[in-house]
Amino acid sequence: MSRYRGPRFKKIRRLGALPGLTNKRPRTGSTLRNQPRRAKKSQYRTRLQEKQKLRFHYGLTERQLVKYVRIARKAKGPTGQVLLQLLEMRLDNILFRLGMASTIPGARQLVNHRHILVNGRIVDIPSYRCKPRDIITVRAEQKSRALIQKSFDSSLHEELPKHLTIHPFQYKGLVNQIINSKWIGLKINELLVVEYYSRQT
């Protein structure tokens, strides 16, 4: 299944806030109030929605998410927490958290277009897994820095997770440590995602 490229509001109306997908919010109005009440959700549907939240927030294909779940199962520690840590340490997500991009798709585009360096080397793979002490910088070209500055100027200045440090005037970010799942700030029950895949595979 390919990466979702359809209407973003349609997803956040159904699943709730997905800051990685879009920083916009749908207008609350008569279109939402007049919708018929939905029947009680089944357990399967609840697990599916939690999985979809994770998938659309991080901008993953179904195949990619299945791969991350399998890696998390083999790692030490609770599968759900390990899964969130794997997703949070992706380069495209780190750029989003640092405020260098307003959304994860925007961050992915920066990486694909070779604007980003990790430890002094260009990395053009959005799924690159960052590690503690990684230094993330922007290419010295004016075009690259203008793109990042635009994001800095339009960002909502949300609190930076404790595992990251940003030096905006140097266009540089630091990964201090592996993220603690408590700092993720995404309203999601990762255990239901693990349950969903345990019943699917």
From TrEMBL:
Residues 89-152 form the RNA-binding S4 domain. Residues 3-88 form the Small ribosomal subunit protein uS4 N-terminal domain. Keywords: Chloroplast, Plastid, Ribonucleoprotein, Ribosomal protein, RNA-binding, rRNA-binding. Residues 35-44 have a biased composition (Basic residues). It comes from the Eukaryota. It is found in: Plastid, Chloroplast. Belongs to the universal ribosomal protein uS4 family. This is Small ribosomal subunit protein uS4c. The gene is rps4.
